[in-house]
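Shipment paperwork, digital attachment
Item: protein structure file
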Amino acid sequence: MTTDRKKLLRLNRRAPGNDGCIDLLDCFLGFPSCDHPNSPLIPDRSETATAREGRKGIPAAAVEEGAMMGRQARKWMVLMATVWIQAFTGTNFDFSAYSSDLKAAMGISQVQLNYLATASDLGKALGWSSGLALLYLPLPFVLLLAAAVGFGAYGAQWLLITHRISLPYFPVFLLCLLAGCSICWFNTVCFVLCVRNFPVNRSLALSLTTSFNGVSASLYTLVVNAVGGSCSVYLLLNATLPLLVSTIALLPIVRQPPAHLLLLAPADSARHDSYIFLLLNILAFVTGLYLLFLNSISSVSSTARLLLAGAVLLLLLPLCVPGVICARDWARRTLFSSSLFSFIGVEDHELQKQLVQSSEDDIDDGVNNGDAFSVNDGNDDCSHGENGRRSCWWWWRCWCWDRLAALGDEHTATRLVSRIDFWLYYVSYFCGATVGLVYSNNLGQIAQSMGRESQTTMLVTVYSSCSFFGRLVSAAPDFLRGKINFARTGWLAVAVVPMPLAFFLLAEVGDTHALLAGTALIALSSGFIFAAAVSITSELFGPNSLGVNHNILITNIPLGSLLYGLLAALIYDANGKSMVPLVLGDGMVLCMGRKCYAKTFLWWACITLVGLASSLALYLRTRAIYVQPARMPAAEEGAQSETLD
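Attachment content:
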């Protein structure tokens, strides 16, 4: 155990008179413990652990473990707050639910409507500003600022669509831009909270919280059905609910434990946290099934209210999981220490605990120092010199030149954009998940052109729920680590495969079942990519630069939204104008029939094939740097067993 670690432990011990029950309460509620060195409850450093134990009758180990559990519980409260923020801030997924009403209220064409959808995605191009804001402003202030911007942007659009105000086209374009920017700020705040509070299991935390961003449209649909409102209510909810949830989430966020004290976690905390994440993912899966299958019967207001209450209960239920597990561990450790270690003496137990802890810390420092893992083991194709494939200059140029050397290596923005691997990553995202997002923006017009306008809400729910499942499945590489050694970039390539298949299906078959199946496949694929991309960005280009680097990556979203959406709008208007009776007098063009989007689906299918090829190239270039982390748990266990022997 290092000197700094011992110093932190001494500073963090409880005051006399604390009987350990407070730690159990902290574990359930996540209230702050006396962690700060200036706290008046911290005892005099000159007072030894043995003297305090004699006065209290409680082993010092139990006191220290209770303090640690209090901090651990508060990080789970922060995670639950992040889940709620993500669940109610995915407001870009319900655009297709009110886009037709917005188009009619403004009297604009399909191309102009596409520009508004592009403006919402263009706000993500300004997402890097949230990373800069977090460098100079407190995180709670950035969260409230994002909520305030979203409230103003969506609130003004609601006033417009309900004919309470009248605005020209350009101010509405700016409002959509601000709304998209607020979503990106919410996401950045959530990413930073996960990275700060879960430095070891951050990929699990990111995939879990990001997945709930996909259920926003389903939750909003339940609320709209519960109040019996029109499609304009979506905009009102987009304005108010994120502000309300962000205000409630401030309490656990401002009480989050300091980052340096999270390093005092027990040796088995990573495995313990993985167990909790598994239970939370199971609860999330149940929540997704609930919203997917029961949302279809929520057309009646009374039924929708009951289903909404059940959905809120399911969102509250994860709060109990960390509390119950921490309480169980607290009771087990306290009873165990008081019954067994009273025979061997507290000082011997302390010595044994320090020896085991120090050995595990040394192993962690040696294997996982700075989250960077080198791959100079000579097991890849680029390390064999002239005797291997490197003898072919074109092979070396494609797969070996300027290749990443380690996971977790921090990249500045300048270094990031000079990397070949980043641009392969950029193209795979641009020609993959972004196409799925543009499809969701056009879902209202697609349903209308196929004569299924009444099923738009159901299609939005299917896309939202399946996007949620795709995001949730992105945690599979972390749970399968050690069993299936497959690079996360390889999982990214696998996730792109269903997308071209879905678009070819939509282009060839135009019935309801094909529309539902295609929507589900596209949502699953794009949802997986959206969630996995956060972890991939952190692994390939450094966790500390995630806030800026990931926002640079998603600048492809507004670009793709403009190009792919414009392609769809031009084909739509061209087909609509050929149908003279359906050209309206106010400039609106209404296209009916499967051919309105058939050619668009073929174009999108070919584009996603390019994304698949790019993701495969990224996997081939980065698979070697994932080898050593995949072997790390086995090496860890072997080293630990040798130390204990």
